[in-house]
Amino acid sequence: MIHRVRWTEAFLCAGSSALLISAAHLYPELRFVSLFALVPFLWRAIRASLIESMVLGGLLALSYAFIAIRPESWASPGTLILTVVGLVVLFALYGAAVNRIKTRIGFNAIFIAALWLPLEYFLSEYANLEYLFAIATDESGFLLRIGSLFGMLTIPFVVVLINSLILIVLRQLVRVLRSCDTHPIPEKKRTSPPFKEIAYERRWYCYPDVRAPPRVAH
Fold first, then answer.
1. Nearest residue to 41 via CA among 123, 164, 127
2. DSSP string covering 2-20, please?
3. Which one-letter DSSP state was computed for residue 49?
4. DSSP state letter for 130
5. Helix, strand or coil for residue 38?
């Protein structure tokens, strides 16, 4: 039962991230969603085991491929299968890398963002898919200017970095809320519990001898 709940949680986290990423692609007015789209995936990846993190990455890849792959790609099943397998392997390796980084050195936002760049490059150069976190060329804004100066891969780096920082803030907030739930009582204000003694556990010598009432002097 516990394993079933854990795998269900992994599926929900991967599916939620895939849904948010797809929403940012399909609706330009929801582009800001990409700033926290990876939070469910990262949150689960750093809490799961190594195998679960790899499965989590594979689930994210399958969910995204099901939505992002164009219908005309089904005309060549061989190429489609190779693309999906490549996505699953790459996302699984990313999930494993995130898990190992958290285990070895802690959750480092810069490393998490840097490891995302090979994945974006594979999507664009070999899978014939768009960047997961891309800005349209006809848009104007701060991120587009950064991409023009340092390259388009800078935009995914900044977006994943923001996702990681949001997760760090949420984890700290959860820790603060949990610490507020327990209010330790100072030592000087603690009351001693009442002494309880069970009567039938007393030994025979704890009871007084039977005595007659004192004589009344006449």
1. 164
2. HHHHHHHHHHHHHHHHHHH
3. -
4. -
5. coil
Q: CB–CB of 14/60 below 8 Å? A: yes
Which phi and psi angles does 146 have, rounded to 5°?
-65, -45
Compute the chain's Rg from CA coordinates.
31
- Sign of the four-CA dihedral 193, 199, 203, 207: positive
Which candidate, 91, 101, 110, places its Cα nearest to that of 158? Answer: 110
What is the dihedral sign for C-alpha 74, 62, 127, 160? positive
CA 87 to chain centre: 20
Residue 180, judged by CB atoms within 10 A of its CB (0-12, 13-18, 19+), counts as exposed
- Asked if 67 and 56 touch (Cβ cutoff 8 Å), the reply is no
Per-position pLDDT tens, the chain of length 218: 556 677 788 888 988 998 898 888 777 788 888 889 999 999 999 988 899 999 999 999 888 877 777 666 666 777 778 878 888 888 999 999 999 998 888 888 999 999 888 888 777 776 666 667 765 544 545 555 555 445 567 788 888 999 999 999 999 998 888 888 655 555 555 555 554 545 455 555 555 555 556 665 55
